[in-house]
Give the backbone structure.
Amino acid sequence: LTAITLPMTHQNLANMIGSNRVTVTRKLLELQERGAVRSLGRNAIAVDQVKLLTHAQAATTNEPTFA
């Protein structure tokens, strides 16, 4: 796992990517449930790069992820 510091709120992240806070929160929770990311506190996450890449590739091909 790789630790990443994110000194921003879900709203800040949503603004950066042209989304909304609810969607960012929902998608981050989905990634946590799939084991691709894990919260390390208020401003940091641990990322499983392999699982995250698998999820991203499946999303572009409409295949189920993490069977």
Observations:
- Residues 2-61 form a domain with the Arc Repressor Mutant, subunit A fold (CATH 1.10.10.10).
- The mean pLDDT is 89.
